[in-house]
Amino acid sequence: MGPQIIVVDLGGQYTRLIARKIRELGVRSVVLSAEAAGEALASCKPKGIILSGGWASVRDTDDAPDVPEAILTAGIPVLGVCLGMQWLAKKLGGVVESWASQREYGVYDFKCMVASDPLFQGVPEKSLVRLSHGDSVTVLPVGAYRSGMTKDCGIASFTIPDKQIFAVQFHPECTETDHGSQMLKNFLEICGAVPDWNPECLVAQIRSEVLAAVPKGAKLIHLFSGGVDSTVIAKLLEPVFQDRLVCAFIDTGSLREGEFMEVRRNAVAAGCSLHYFEAKREFVAVMSGLIDGEARRIAFQEMYRNKMEEFKDIFKTQYATQGTLATDLIESGQEGGAALIKTHHNAGVDSINPLRSLFKDEVRDVARFLGLPDFVSERMPFPGPGLFVRIVGIPATEETLNIVRSADACSRGIIRAAGIEHEISQLVVALVGVPTTGVKGDARSVGYAIVVRAVRSVDFMTARGYELPSGVRRSLITALTRDPQIVRVWFDEGDKPCATIELM
Q: For residue 457, which of 503, 421, 424 has the smallest C-alpha distance?
């Protein structure tokens, strides 16, 4: 049985989130390019189609998405999201314009105007939705009715009942949309989709895919970082590969205090032996000559790739795997037509990526299903380049690495002691190399600032800034400015978007 829902990727950052939400609701889906979706319609019989958002504009003849019109004549329900809504409106005779007064980026109040609309069953009249658009539908196609609006956008959703076409300007796949899951569930019911997806099925599929990719008897190198993603892969593959699975850990010199002890503990939890490779001098020597964040990420990726090739030579194999997630591929511009946000070290590297279609919350679910302890399944993410991308505006030298490493350990200790660690999805502690003037010991002191950034997120495609309690802030300021080179502490509470979670 093939996928029941085709998600047509129009280049949106959140396209994979749509597929994740559909899986979360127990239904198999597939993400396809517009061209591939047209081919799939001719060879299989999906029960519904979802057109994703994207960065392009339907008003631009050069960049407008080339969606096959067969979607409109397939006789199955269609849901257009953001750019998908605009494409449907224009293709069916409506008007899409760019009005500054209607541009919306963030979370807004949404009003459902037609309670009987099948897409909005069980959704209250007023709720919050995530929007990110410059263009807006200003004139509806013939046969359509307006089903919802926001304060600034007069047509935030519409329906063409005779054609079973539904369109929303907002993103129901994002967690910030209060009742997005209910809307997608309603769409699945409109399509007549039936449950056919669960974690057990996912685990079996991953094991089968990796076994098929690695010849019998060959070794498989797994780049083990100790995070939930790489630990899940080790736990998944150890029973089927056993001594053919080689878990390799690279010490790049950019680890947090106590990091390797946690890595070893997680390797034990996964039931795998760990090969330690020390490469501090090599990485620091290269990274200390770079200041631009993207340049550092690209250089780190290249060194990481070289290390992987070294491991292949050492263990006499051509096969490697790593914990690359959908978020890594999307932000690296490796998925569909998504724009490059930042290069992730594990994207664009020659390896097997068993978790490539999953998001962080899904991987956590798999970790729990596999029986991994909480210290693995609930572990906060830490970027692959580590502290190298938490030193902003100045070289990442041994000295600056030690400053931010100490500040990170101190901050995590204060957060833990305050009992709020479980409320934070990721804690970022960064050194900002902008000299500012302070006073220490009644004398002028010129030093750096530490930025403390806490966010809450489920899938890490979007995030909400977390406001630390005032008492915790005071403790952080007092403790962190004891370092002679730190004269102030800044707190970053920006959401993603428009800020990314890491500063670089």
A: 424
> pLDDT of 424-482, one tens digit each?
999 999 999 988 888 887 778 778 999 999 998 876 777 889 999 999 999 999 999 99
- CA distance linking residue 68 with residue 66, whole number of Å: 6
The superfamily CATH assigns to domain 5-191 is Class I glutamine amidotransferase (GATase) domain (3.40.50.880)
DSSP string, 165-199: EEEESS-TTSTTSTTHHHHHHHHHHHHT------H
Active site residues: 82, 171, 173
**Global pTM value:** 0.70
User: How far apart are the C-alpha atoms of 148 and 172, rounded to whole Å?
Assistant: 13
- Considering the domain delimited by 199-377, tell me its CATH architecture: 3-Layer(aba) Sandwich (3.40)
CATH number of 397-492: 3.30.300.10
Cβ-contact 483, 449 below 8 angstroms: no
Domain with CATH 3.40.50.880 in the chain: 5-191
Contact 191, 76 (CB under 8 A): yes
Tokens linked to 459: 């899938």
